[in-house]
Amino acid sequence: MKRLDIVQRVVEKPEHTRYTAKFVGQVFDGILEEISSALENGEDVKITGFGTFIVRKINDRPGRNPKTGEPVLIPAHHTVLFHPSRSLLRVSGKPERE
Amino acid sequence: MTRDDLIKRVAEKNAGISLSEARNLVLDLFESMKSVILEGESLEIRRFGVFEIHHRKPRIARNPRTGEKVSVGERKSLIFRPGKILKLRMKNLTRKST
After folding, report:
1. Per residue in B4-42, is it b (16+ CB within 10 Å) or e — as a string?
2. Chain A positions in Cβ-Cβ contact with residue B44 (cut-off 8 Å)
3. What is the pTM assigned to this prediction?
4. Is B6 part of the contact surface with chain A (CB cutoff 8 Å)?
């Protein structure tokens, strides 16, 4: 399941028949680029109805080389967390309360 | 950055479409991503990352306030793992902030 599946589903919708798959693909790539560059600049990205991408700083911490067991320092870095929106979580099967 | 900022940027970048057309396209692309994730249990987008549904086993937990045991049923959670390119781009942020 990849990029093409996503684009294909949008192009197949009757209201989007005037767009080519190529164009919708470009729009999709543009969206990913906007999100990536905002994150790269340290900005969180909140997509209502989908989820939030959060930039998180990870401090350096001691780790070990799993092969040799030798202690190494894992340097501080930044990573991206994703919190799915409620609507995405609900359909992905949030726990049913017993 | 919010969804509306994203829609504006998409409309600016694609001269051929109006703001409301950009809006419809962006919303439908995210809807499409949602359904692909939920049906396929995972979605890999090259240069960006992977969305995956993880199954968590049922377990016995405790109510932290009362110490009472509660059973937590099997549940699913959605995680996002940034891809190689996005990770590399996050290094720019680390470099800038140190």
Report:
1. eebbbbbbeebeebeeebbbbbbbbbbbbbbebbbeebe
2. 1-2
3. 0.85
4. yes
